[in-house]
Design a protein that fits this description.
Order of helices and strands: HEHEHEHEHEHEHEHH
Largest sheet: 7 strands, parallel
Oligomer: single chain
Radius of gyration: 17 Å
Distance between the termini: 19 Å
Number of helices: 9
Length: 257
């Protein structure tokens, strides 16, 4: 939400949003030092929760150096040394949004470092999967990295941005899957509902992007409207948009509504 105005908070509250989870994210430019990330983590753990609270919304967050900035292993190493300073903050749920961007060797190395950090501190993990033609390969690489660390419990990992050709492998690995609703990329409301109809609703939910580019913070309630139009029962809608996220996130003792 650091990229959004307070109007978005007001609209989300009006739509019935009671909590949001903001992953550590790309700033729209590559940061040059660990101190830049330290200030960003302060924003996520100190300022943004207060801004959300003004609208009756609980703000939770995740910490990492995001995949778009993970090519610089030296910088990533410095940032990972900073993260433990913020792990005890009351709104921190875990490590994320980690993953891959271009599926490079350096990105894989930094991903492994993040997974080790999460395992060492018993943290939940939120994962970003790469875009378009790299998604299938990148998702497989990510699943292999997670599987290779025996300390990680599959049910404590959320793999975000799943699509039709990756959702099956994520669920088969025992992880949770997220469908990111975008107006121009990733997943449309119609496709997200199609996937629920095809794969069921267990360990799946939708999330809305609050991006620097075209994105719709109200994408989840709007997709719920489309589900009703298709004739789905309210219990299924409630499961996908509220009960499933709550079940996963409640594995953190800090997620309290």
């Amino acid at each position: 939400m650091v990229s959004r105005t307070t109007d978005d908070y007001a609209d989300m509250a009006t739509a019935g949003c009671v909590a949001l989870c903001e992953p550590a994210f790309w700033a729209g430019f590559d940061r040059s030092s660990a101190d830049g990330f330290r200030d960003y983590f302060r924003q996520l753990t100190e300022y943004e929760p207060k801004r959300a609270a003004n609208y009756g919304i609980k703000h939770f967050t995740w910490l990492c150096i995001n995949p778009k900035e993970s090519e610089d292993v030296a910088l990533a190493t410095d940032v990972l040394e900073v993260i433990p300073e913020f792990m005890d903050c009351p709104n921190v749920l875990g490590i994320g949004e980690i993953g891959l961007n271009k599926n490079s060797r350096n990105e894989v190395k930094v991903l492994e470092m993040h997974v080790n950090l999460a395992a060492s501190h018993d943290q939940l993990i939120l994962v970003h999967t790469p875009h378009l033609e790299d998604k299938h390969k990148g998702t497989r690489l990510i699943l292999d990295v997670i599987k290779n660390d025996s300390r990680i419990k599959p049910e404590r990992v959320m793999i975000d941005h799943v699509e039709e050709h990756t959702i099956g492998m994520v669920l088969d690995a025992g992880h949770w899957g997220g469908m990111t609703l975008y107006p121009e990329s990733k997943c449309s409301p119609a496709r997200a509902i199609d996937m629920i109809e095809r794969f069921g609703s267990d360990r799946l939910w939708w999330d809305a992007a609050c991006d620097w580019g075209p994105s719709v913070p109200l994408a989840v309630p709007r997709t719920a409207v489309e589900m009703r139009r298709r004739g789905h029962e309210e219990a299924l809608i409630e499961k996908v948009i509220f009960e499933n996220p709550k079940a996963f996130l409640s594995q953190s003792e800090r997620f309290l509504l």
